[in-house]
Structures are given as structure tokens and as C-alpha cells.
Amino acid sequence: MVDVAIVGAAGACGRQLAAQLLQRHTILPSDRLQLVGHSGGASEHELWGLRSDLEDAFADRAPQVELAFDPDGVDADLVVMLAGRTVSLDPGEPVDRAGLAAHNAALFRDYAVALARRPEPPIVVVQSNPVELGVRILAEHLPPERVLGAAAWSDTLRFRRELAADLGVSRRDVAAFVLGEHGDHLVPVWSAVDVRGLGPTAGVDLVHRVRGGRRLADLPDEVVRARTDLLDLVRSERVAEAWSFVQGLPADLRAAVKPYFTNFTSGRTTEVATAHAVADLVDAFVAGVWWAVPAQVWVRGLWQDLQAAIAVPVVVAQNGWVPALDVQVSAEELEALRAADRALGQAQERSLHNMQ
Fold first, then answer.
1. Most buried in the list 96, 162, 170, 341, measured by CB within 10 Å?
2. Domain spanning 152-356 has what CATH number?
3. Active-site residue 182, yes or no?
4. 0.85 cut: is pTM over it?
């Protein structure tokens, strides 16, 4: 038996996750699903309605569904953090990760303190933004090996998808992963790209062709410029042109920028893809399988001497994560990771200082 709580279940991603976990049969009739929000207003009303809808849709296999309306009411073996402010759906508003951090830090702390009071610390999967800050704050109150972020896995799925599209193959035939920040300092690990059916020489040639001679050190600036150009097109309501612009970007830039296209054109956040990535991690924990996966964790020097909460390769199992020490990256990728680590470390320290 595994009891799962979704904090922020009334939001778009929370609702999607609840449905996907039940569709996958991750949560069994003998388990409990706790939908967590805050009391009063639309959030409370929507949780009552969501519980009713889930029970009707999945009556043949529905677990016990409960509601909770404050951090102290959370009672689960595995907690998914999806609550908090997100990037605005208005393309006229700036993409302000510092503003998200200032707003959501207190929420992360409130849940961290409450979960730390539980007799047994739960596994916590963070997908609220900034995901690295959420991981850092929760890992300061709970055993760090029981806290991880799912955003690196969603970035990885996007990167694999874009590579597969360029190559004309299925995503399942592409091995690749993304480390670093869930943001401008993402680090696609090109040295690990492998396509089923291609030999080593053909694989290296293919990566060179897809990358087009670009450097990882330039990627953060490329992401900012591409996002700015995309948003200019969306603001002027040239949506078809914006789609063509995104499709013309290299695979790693598409993986970084296309979620903004989704966010600012669909009227919704990237709810389906976000919930899908979280559901994959929840599946692994519930099944108790060992799985090597990129995830945001508070590294503290355990992998390549990185210190911040940042995405690195880990192995997850039923009781948490351990670093995947056998995963190698190139010198260029390691330098990009160190740059991401410095940027994230400084941002996290500022946020923690401002909370005091």
C-alpha cells in the first residue's frame, strides 16, 4: 500500500496528475489519494468537485479519495508538490522566475515544516516552480535523499522528442537526458545521445549535424533570445508564424522554448506533459523499481562537486535517491553544469536570505 498526496490538486497540473495516476492504475483501490489545497474560495470548492468527478470516472478501481486544506493535514507516504504561483498565461507579462521564487518560497517552507513533523518523512516529488528552490527548501527540513524534482525528467522527455522528430524515429528509440536548471541554464548531455540502430561513428556524426557546431556555453543566451522572439510573435497574434519559428530551432532550443509556446497559446500551462513526467516518477516509487533518471536534488557535493539544488543523474527506488556515480559527461557539459550550479546556488541563497 502507498498513500499519495497531491498538493495543489485543484490546479491544472494537479487535476491532470490525479487522473493520470488513476488511469495508469498506479494507485490501487486499497490505497489512498489525498487531494490537498487551501481552505476557502475556489480552491476548496474545486477539490470537492474533483473528488466527485474522479470517483465517478474510476468507480471500478477508485482508491479512497480524501481532501485536506492545510499543510498539517497532509498524511501520505508520497507527496507531490504542485502548488504555488506559475508563469502567467499572459504573453504580455514578463517571465519572472525571481518573482515566482519570492512568492512560492514561503509555501515551500510551510509544507516542509509540516512534513518534517510527521513520524516518518514522506518521499516528496517537487514540480512547482522554481523547482530547484522547492527542492532546496524541502530538503533542508526533510532527509535530502527523499526529496527530488521531476522537471529534469520532463525536460529530458521533450529533448528526446525533438531529437526523434529531427531524425524521423520514435522517441523510444532515442536515449538522451537533460541536466542543470529547469530554465535558461539547462544542459542537454549531447555526449550521451544514442539512437537505436546506429553505430558509434554514425551516432557521433549525427550529433554533430543536429548541433550545428553550437557551444553549450552559448545556450543560456540563445534560450533568452529565442524566447523573446517567440513572445514577440505571440503578442502580435502571429501564432502560426510563432509555431514555424519554434519548429525551425535546433532540437535543444526547441525543448527549452516550446513549452512557452504551449503556455502562451493554449490558455493553459503545460499540464499534460508536466503531469506525465511526475506520474512516471510516482510509478517508479510505488513499484519500488530501481531507475536511473535525471532529477533535481540538493546535491551537496555528492556528484561532480556540485553544491546547489540542481538536476543531476540519480537512481531512485522505494526509499529515495542516490547519485548515479557511473554517469559520465564531457568537459564542455561539466563546465556548463558548473555555470548552472553557480547561478542556481546564488539564486537559492538570495531566496533563503529573503525568507529570514
1. 162
2. 3.90.110.10
3. yes
4. yes
